[in-house]
Amino acid sequence: MTENILDTELGSEEKKKPSIINWASIIILWIGIGLCMASGMIGNLKLIIAIVLLAVTTAFTYWDFEKGVKTTMFVILVGVLGFIEFFPFKYEISFGIGGLGIGFEFVLIGVAILHYFTNREILKEPEKEISEEEKEAKFNKSKKTFKHHFSGRGIDDLKRLVEEGKIVAPAIAAAKELIEEKEKPT
């Protein structure tokens, strides 16, 4: 039971791997491009630019997921404004004077919303910087929690946790403290 808690709730600080849901908006855009090609729009300049941009953003997303997610949102927004086309059909509203105008593509607005909600942890505002005192207080609070969770473990088990180093820093510190306390002669 304690091992399950350690593995799921108190695990290491590794980034989680993106799932197919995180890629959903890119997949939808590639399907749209495929539909454009099937409908004979291959010579359309806006489609060619969309293909190039989507290929670049797909590569970014593959090699550096965070940068790729942000680049994908930018490319989707360029499409929302009508500068590039991803689908052979359009549901848009346009405003303009004379030959100058701007439109908003509703299908791409939906893709942008999907992209935001499936990748919001990356797209949300970065957290403000916390002071060293706040960091230390947070560390000590986490260490206290880990110490409570590890209190029933034996010295050998605690030493194994420290040696493996597969747990977060506050957990290691808590395990070391417990080892010291348990090894002290009474």
| Fraction in beta strands | 5-15%
Oligomer: single chain
**Continuous helix count:** 9
The radius of gyration computed from the alpha-carbon positions, rounded to a whole number of angstroms, is 25 Å
Give the distance, in angstroms, between the N- and C-terminal Cα atoms. Answer: 30 Å
Largest pleated sheet: 2 strands, antiparallel
- E-strand count: 2
Which bin fits the share of residues in helices?
Answer: 55-70%
User: How confident overall, as mean pLDDT?
Assistant: 83
Class from helix and strand fractions:
mainly alpha
Strand order of the largest sheet: 1-2
The parts where pLDDT drops under 50 for at least 5 residues are 1-14
**Order of H and E elements:** HHHHEEHHHHH
Shape: elongated
Q: Briefly, what is this?
A:
With 186 residues, the protein is mainly α. The protein is 63% helix and 6% strand. The chain is built from 9 helices and 2 strands.
Helix and strand topology:
Layout: H1 2-8, H2 24-38, H3 45-63, H4 65-80, E1 92-97, E2 100-105, H5 106-118, H6 120-123, H7 132-150, H8 155-164, H9 169-183
Antiparallel strand pairs: 1-2
Helix pairs in contact: 2-3, 2-5, 3-4, 4-5, 7-9, 8-9
